[in-house]
């Protein structure tokens, strides 16, 4: 019979991270649905809004989200039908296209952002001291860069664009 260690800090760390993420996601979900967005809609729009030129190549958007290339295509299709994003051709590569946030998309984000920031403050960052938050951000970047090295893809404008 295998014995599962009850005091292994690796298991504890992974369990706490999963529990915190699940709990935070549940708290944030309510704000998103109040303005007609799903969690992935919000993640897509906020990433576009915070990117150079308020747009990302579709492949970079997929790399930054938890979606496959076909999954991000479906999300962008839906957001495009709602007028929240638009596709733009890539001038340097005919095979690539960008997803760009529209004014309507920015307005939708603006409708949810005050509550979202209040939720983040209440349930996450406001629970930490400034030093704890700095340490957490540094730690999360180390882990993110190791497990998702493409997560910042498209974060800088290329000279040809």
Automatic annotation (TrEMBL):
Signal sequence bounds: none
Ranges for domain HTH marR-type: 7-145
Molecular function GO labels: DNA-binding transcription factor activity
PANTHER family, alphabetized: MARR FAMILY REGULATORY PROTEIN, TRANSCRIPTIONAL REGULATOR, MARR FAMILY
Family matches, as Pfam families: MarR_2
Membrane-traversing stretches: none
GO biological process, one term: response to stress
Source organism, top-level taxon: Bacteria
Name this protein carries in UniProt: HTH marR-type domain-containing protein
Species of origin: Streptosporangium roseum (strain ATCC 12428 / DSM 43021 / JCM 3005 / KCTC 9067 / NCIMB 10171 / NRRL 2505 / NI 9100)
């Amino acid at each position: 019979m295998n014995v599962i260690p009850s005091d292994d800090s690796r298991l504890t760390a992974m369990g706490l991270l999963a529990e915190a993420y699940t709990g935070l996601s549940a708290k944030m979900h309510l704000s998103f649905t109040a303005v007609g967005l799903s969690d992935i809609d919000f993640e897509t729009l906020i990433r576009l809004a915070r990117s150079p030129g308020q747009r990302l190549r579709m492949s970079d958007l997929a790399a930054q989200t938890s979606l496959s290339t076909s999954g991000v295509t479906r999300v962008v299709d839906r957001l495009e039908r709602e007028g929240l994003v638009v596709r733009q051709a890539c001038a340097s590569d005919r095979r690539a296209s960008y997803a760009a946030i529209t004014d309507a998309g920015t307005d939708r984000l603006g409708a949810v952002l005050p509550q979202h920031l209040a939720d983040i403050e209440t349930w996450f960052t406001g629970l930490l001291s400034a030093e704890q938050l700095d340490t957490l951000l540094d730690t999360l970047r180390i882990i993110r860069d190791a497990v998702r090295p493409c997560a910042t893809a498209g974060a800088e404008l290329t000279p040809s664009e």
